[in-house]
Amino acid sequence: MKKLLFFASATLLLQCHSPETKTDNTIYVKDPHSYSQPEKAVVKHLALDLKVDFEKQELSGKAVYDIQNNNSNEIIFDTRNLNIQKITLGEDEKEASFSLSKNDSIFGQALTINIEKNTSRVNIYYSTTKGAEALQWLTPQQTAGKTQPFLFTQGQAILSRTWFPCQDSPGIRFTYSAKLRVPKNLLAVMSAENPVAKNDSGVYNFSMPQPVPAYLIALSVGDIEFKKIGERTGVYAEPVMLEKSVYEFADMEDMLISAEKLYGKYQWGQYDVIVLPPSFPFGGMENPRLTFATPTIIAGDRSLTSLVAHELAHSWSGNFVTNATWDDIWMNEGFTVYFERRIVEAIYGKEYVEMQWQLGLQDLEATLEEFQESGEESSLKLHLQGRNPDDGLSDIPYEKGAHFVLLLEQKAGREKLDKFLNDYFNAHAFKTITTEEFLKYLDAEFIKKYSLDVNVDEWVYKNGLPANCPRVVSAKFKTVEQALYSWSKGTKPELLPTKDWTCHEWLHFIRNLPGNISASEMEILDNAFHFTNSGNSEVAAAWYVQAINSNYKNAYPEIETFLMNVGRRKFVVPLYKQFVKTEEGKRLALEIYAKARPNYHSVAAITLDELLGYKLP
After folding, report:
1. Inter-CA distances, 15 with 76, 159, 384, 503, 575, Å
2. Catalytic annotation on 398?
3. Tell me, what DSSP letter sits at residue 121?
4. Can you tell me the distance from the alpha carbon of 456 to that of 404, in angstroms, rounded to the nearest whole number?
5. Residue in 236, 263, 348, 398 annotated catalytic
6. In this predicted model, what pLDDT tens digit does every residue of 172-204 receive, in sequence order?
7. 589 within 8 A of 612, measured Cβ to Cβ
8. Is 311 one of the annotated active-site residues of the chain?
9. Out of 71, 234, 329, 335, which could bridge 228 as a Cys pair, Cβ 3.0 to 4.6 Å?
10. Which domains does the chain have, with CATH numbers?
């Protein structure tokens, strides 16, 4: 674990532990992952004016901040490896003095700007630097189309400060606009109101009228085209990926309608998805109005599009109501997984979502076992001070959080839970919330209201999984388990009843293969079911983990190809972890990684560098 060393002044350090402050009816909780002090002065609107330079791999220009100044003589921003050229105040651009604290390798530098007590606007002229971790600059060869370069950003959790100065805390929300200058043959899109086609000037303007935290400001530039799916939904992708993506996401409008029926009106206007190149480190990122998605969910059969339901659900839990600090990340992710599965059930049926619940619990129990061995905390409320908040992104906030919400449903019934969640979202619209604030609201408006017996503290503040954790059992998985039993007793794979299986059933099948399965047995299964060459990334990744475990070397060329071309952390980390369990495997992993690393986003590369003990040449 990486420790946080604040290299700002002792005063700044002490202030990070001061009580909550109230400004203009907004409560700001002190965030240990941000140097900002919003009780002094806080950003209310950001206007970016930037040039995107692919040759220099640089963003450069001006960031204009309209601020709420609470009679302060300074405002503090988070920055990391930015080149600050000059800073001015007001519309007349009076030059201001500023200072940067000593650099911290994770948290960057506090940018303290001297302002006047009546200052309401701050203008920062800056440029990004080589290796800015939020930015991934891709060569044409690293894209699907192979003809044009590509850029995308990834701000969560605290990487936005590497591409623009910001008060980089989820507890600080502001509106924004942007003017971007990009090469004329490329299109720019943002987490905002977007163009749907390239123009002749290469200049694009954006507006986000709803207040969002810095981590939800996102940018992508490339050879991108748009196609409408429904009245409020559509897809952006490289031209060679567009038709496949439109087919895959055909249910998006139905998902949006189903979500609104559950938890109220969608508040962001348009909901689109952009399919990024394969180096994108996550399955998806819930940037408002424009979900960023990995191409690994393009399976050709719409079997992996629950990810879209997940990112759509974030439009309520996460974007509409946001965790105040990264210690409260379960408030975003646990509710979203639950909401995602309610959307999926509405579209694809109860049997389908039962498989997802059971697979999710499998993931959670595997993570809990791993955390118990390593001594890591597995409570919902995290304690991330002194650590990179990315350390909190595990199955704990997602699956343990979702199962806690499922327990609430079982205790009171769906109708009562749905009413509670509707009221909760409306009561906290476009606001942030801590775990403690939520639990107080939950107790008053749900638990006491319906006289429920719920062991809330055990779920939220204790490690492990409480005994009353809901356990959804899939009837379809019973059939899979029977097939596995038949195979173990000698039935040929071709004779197993697998004809109508979905990827979830195949995942359950692969996950439950014997731990000591031999390479020759793997080959028999592979010849029958073609797992090694599966077009479904979830199935392929699960099979590859088993192949490494069984030393099934027939799959190794495809595993290397997969690792060379896919940067999704969910897939690549387990594969490298499986390799490093043996000396031979670790040697092979390092050989592959040395070639693959340039294709990975920094979010994945940082994790893998540590796992493999890799040092750049």
Report:
1. 12, 23, 18, 51, 43
2. yes
3. E
4. 9
5. 398
6. 999 999 999 999 999 999 999 999 999 999 999
7. yes
8. yes
9. 234
10. 1-126+157-208 (2.60.40.1730), 321-461 (1.10.390.10), 479-612 (1.25.40.320)
